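To the team - glutamic acid complex, inputs and output below.
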Amino acid sequence: MTDSGIHVSARVGAISPSPTMAVMAEAMRLKAAGEAVVDFSAGQPDFDTPSVAREAGIQAIESGYTRYTPNPGAPDLRAAVADCYRRDFDLDFGAANVLITSGGKHALTGLLLATCEEGDEVVIPTPFWPTFPEQVKITGASPVLARAGEEGWFRPTRAVIEPAVTDRTRCIILNIPGNPSGVMLSPGELEDVANLALEADAYLLWDDTYARLTFEPPPEGCYRRMQDILGHRFVVAGGASKTYAMTGWRLGWAIGPEKVIKGAASLQSQMTSNASSISQKAALAAVTADPAGFQWMTEEFARRMVRMRDGLLAIEGVRCGAPDGGFYLFPSFEAVLRPGEGSGELAAALLDQERVATVPGVAFGHDAHLRLSYATSDAVIDEGVGRIQRFFAAR
Ligand code: GLU
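Output:
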């Protein structure tokens, strides 16, 4: 069967599929075919979902909690998520400010669709998670990239973002700590960005996916100060995936002023209805548990980060800032690339010759880099970094 004559919308044609998911799928395909692939592409914890959440999920199934919940989420979970933002970051939200979604991506889509118009602009600092610009395009708004530099390891400061702000800016996306840089901002820098959004009368959309995975606790009150500055313009997208090793459960949340949350909920009611009832019960157990019980995962990521970074820095010419949280490194191979070679060719050569899967930096807006996830075991890190060292030694 050929595709000729089959119509697909211009909308679909304008959107690129997720490159992170594509590399992960290719690594899985090669592994299934028996290839000894080292997979540094996957942006997900390698740990099992903690038992407190697993057991709550099983209990949900066994007790018949398997029907629709209210579309915006179970009331107890909405309240618990609001409480958990108060507990962790001193943020002032109530249950009505929370929409439970099918993952963080779904939360972002809901918030962007509920706030952006055709012709609006959404500012995205680089390097960016590849999903951001594509989601903005889905809304009919335009992504505008604000280019950060390697100095300060890609800090998305006001100085970086401000040149991209225009009178059409509807929203500034701030992914702190960021994927792929892992970089955090100081309280003063966060305030400066908040003031910029306020002056532009734009939303500040904080993607906090990695905010509970920082190697040092965030400075006290730093996010609350942003909320105080921004008021209703401060909106948040997050989820259970990374903090609680629950990527497959697809459970996230959008947080913001009631009017925006109601709008996003209305869209959700027509597209997916409620997030999985079982995942909601599991997430309720996770967000209400003592966060100290999950701290070991962050400590493990911090340790692995040093292990992988040291191995990469041992390759002559490689530069790599130290992230403040999350589980990615974003080294620069600028000094060792061949003429005309970009990150796509480099990642393809690494996969082809050494069976190491990485995500090309071009997908994040910086073509001399690769993104590597260290959410994997020491043995895999050592094997993969050893292969990368061998690859460059052979050049
Ligand atoms: N967020 C993770 C990543 O960046 C998972 C894949 C995706 O959703 O992009 O790798």
